[in-house]
What we know:
Elements (H helix, E strand, L loop, with lengths): L12 H10 L7 E5 L12 E2 L9 E2 L3 E4 L9 E2 L1 E5 L14 E4 L11 E4 L3 E4 L2 E4 L9 E2 L10 E3 L10 H6 L4 E5 L3 E7 L3 E2 L10 E2 L1 H12 L3 E8 L3 H14 L2 E5 L10 H8 L1 E5 L3 E2 L5 E4 L4 E5 L3 H20 L10 E5 L10 E10 L5 E5 L9 H5 L2 E5 L11 E6 L7
Parallel strand pairs: 6-7, 14-17, 14-18, 15-16, 18-22, 20-24, 23-25
Antiparallel strand pairs: 1-13, 2-12, 3-11, 4-7, 4-8, 5-10, 9-10, 19-21, 21-22, 23-27, 24-25, 24-26, 26-27
Helix pairs in contact: 1-6, 3-6
The protein binds adenosine monophosphate and magnesium ion.
Magnesium ion binds next to loops.
Pfam family, one: MoeA_N
Organism: Limnobaculum zhutongyuii
Protein name: Molybdopterin molybdenumtransferase
Amino acid sequence: MDCCSTSSSLLTLSQALDKLLSQVEPVGQTEQINLTQAADRITAQAITSPLNVPPFDNSAMDGYAVRRSEVTESAVLPVAGKAFAGQPFHGEWPTGSCVRIMTGAPIPAGTDAVIMQEQTEVQENGVRFTAMPKAGQNIRLAGEDIRQGAEVLPVGSKLGVAQLPLLASLGVDQVTVYRRLKVALFSTGDELQTIGQPLQEGQIYDTNRFAVRLMLEKLDCEVIDLGIIRDDEAAIRQAFAKADAQADVVITSGGVSVGKADYTKQILDEMGKISFWKLAIKPGKPFAFGQLSNALFCGLPGNPVSAALTFYQLVQPLLMKLSGYSQWQKPRQIKVKTITALKKTPGRMDFQRGILSSNAQGELEVKTTGHQGSHVFSSFSQGNCFIVLEQERGSVAAGEWVTVEPFNPLLES
Length: 413
Ligand code: AMP
Ligand code: MG
């Protein structure tokens, strides 16, 4: 394949994704860790509940525990005692009396309903009830939420704010998770300068390594940052060897086009096996995927928007599969009208950056972030979605329907 390949020889995004995901398996190694250390980790075993939730029958209301057969419209039942949350009632409960009970308190043996206090009248010698209770009223039964032994999280779940407190509520304090992925990263380019250093003539800042590092951290990977590597065959070869020896995945940026100093692909051909190179998407055409002797390899394009887009669309699902995550889904897409015209040439699928919002009628609509050059990173900071324009589509007029993909948390602020 060369620089002049026609669009028909380029892989579509979905072909590339299928190819990439079908070639990899989760790393598989596991470790047992404390729940407090488990944020963002992936479960390597299904988690079952060691307890019933709730663990005992308890009251859903502040009110009175009764035996229904003793409740009539005229009956006034003396109060035999009190049950509070954390302080069960252990006293005598004579026939013809009731027990004051608070929300969350264990239900005294023999109770068959709780009458809420709003349906009672407190009198000198007891309580009269203004509504007749139904069987089981206001009683939360043991195990009604989760039964002991029931599966609460399948294998491959990500442990986040919705999952960890659930496990804590079950008394689970150790979890078996997959080990974190090790990802080695370097940028290539003689023009690149490290952030924080003054720019010399002809230099630009290395934004890709920073962007990719941030995304890897959000994906809970261990990052091995090998810095900026000059456009020098020997240096790049050495960086590949070092990265390959330490990591599960090696990610590079730049050097995968067909310029004179674009050695990445050539060295990869030598040191590993390229699975595919070049996609029918814009931006992001020169993306390479392959295998080194130990690690997988992803070569991101040099242009920052292309690098971030291909990372998001391809590397993100790859890392999720490798990490053992089992619930990855293709990004959600919706159809909305564009309120601005969008420039496009047929041939590749465009991922333009857009701003999705609701209009005065409460309908969603999208507009462009403006200049769509693959070096214009501000399109990510201004945008909140991709406007996905089909491969063979041309320019789009204002008012036409387009497909939109809201950014997921990897790009959301
Ligand atoms: P390349 O793929 O190496 O030919 O790079 C394509 C374009 O992206 C060139 O304009 C590079 O200067 C730019 N570029 C490459 N790497 C980076 C990077 N790490 N950060 C910002 N721009 C980059
Ligand atoms: Mg370069």
